[in-house]
């Protein structure tokens, strides 16, 4: 069956239920989680996130005040701790300029917000799009590895890196913030179930479907 992006989301939601993503209690926790998950698995990232919870209670000003050496120690379970700790420091220093007011960040940066995020140390395209969607309330498609693998199974070719899908996949007005967040969560939950092992996709409810990107 041929599916539009909207129909793909609807089918995944019907089969899997709501994803509940991003699993966090605050926007500061989402920021930390988005940085910690880079180039590692959820288990390692969760250990580092738990360290930050204990040290800061995810109060943005408290995270901003942590010395770099302590941030490195908190980050260590997630790997790449030097780069990730600098990213944490850079993001919260930048947010401090806006009084940690996320709505003010959006209002003052407008269409340049993604570029501003990409200019921060350690923030690449995937992390920037996660932050846009889950922290700043701007619906954005996250073209992560699970999304590229899924879309390849659904017949979309040439998905070699993040940008190769991001430039071809724009969310329509159908995807309000809640749906954009849920769609990302569903894709990642689907990936954990069906895209980690060769051949598992053929056992999924999407086997035989084809995606048509408008």
Automatic annotation (TrEMBL):
Alphabetized UniProt keyword annotations: 4Fe-4S, Iron, Iron-sulfur, Metal-binding
UniProt keyword Iron-sulfur, yes or no: yes
Residues forming coiled coils: none
Gene Ontology biological process terms in this record: base-excision repair
InterPro entries listed in its UniProt record: DNA_glycosylase, HhH-GPD_domain
Database matches in Pfam families: HhH-GPD
Highest taxon listed in the record's lineage: Bacteria
Entries under CDD domains matching the protein: ENDO3c
GO molecular function terms attached to this record: 4 iron, 4 sulfur cluster binding; catalytic activity; metal ion binding
Ranges where the HhH-GPD domain occurs: 36-193
PANTHER family reported for this sequence: A/G-SPECIFIC ADENINE GLYCOSYLASE/ENDONUCLEASE III, DNA REPAIR GLYCOSYLASE MJ1434-RELATED
Name of the protein described by the UniProt record: Base excision DNA repair protein, HhH-GPD family
Originating species: Limosilactobacillus oris DSM 4864
Lineage per the UniProt record: Bacteria, Bacillati, Bacillota, Bacilli, Lactobacillales
């Amino acid at each position: 069956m041929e599916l539009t992006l909207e129909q793909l989301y609807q089918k995944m939601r019907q089969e899997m239920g709501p994803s509940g993503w991003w699993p966090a209690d605050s926007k500061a926790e989402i920021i930390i989680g988005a940085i910690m998950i880079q180039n590692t698995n959820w288990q390692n990232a969760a250990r580092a996130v738990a360290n930050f919870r204990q040290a800061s209670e995810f109060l943005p000003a408290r995270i901003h005040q942590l010395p770099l050496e302590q941030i490195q120690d908190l980050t260590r379970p997630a790997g790449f701790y030097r780069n990730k700790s600098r990213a944490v420091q850079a993001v919260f220093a930048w947010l401090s300029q806006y009084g940690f007011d996320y709505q003010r960040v959006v209002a003052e940066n407008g269409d340049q917000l993604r570029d501003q995020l990409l200019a921060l140390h350690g923030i690449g395209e995937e992390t920037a799009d996660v932050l846009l969607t889950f922290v700043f309330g701007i619906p954005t498609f996250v073209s992560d590895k699970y999304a590229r693998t899924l879309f390849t199974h659904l017949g979309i070719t040439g998905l070699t890196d993040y940008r190769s899908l991001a430039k071809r996949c724009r969310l329509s007005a159908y995807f309000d913030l809640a749906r954009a967040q849920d769609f990302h969560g569903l894709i990642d939950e689907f990936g954990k179930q069906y895209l980690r092992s060769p051949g598992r996709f053929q056992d999924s409810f999407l086997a035989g479907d084809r995606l048509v990107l408008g």
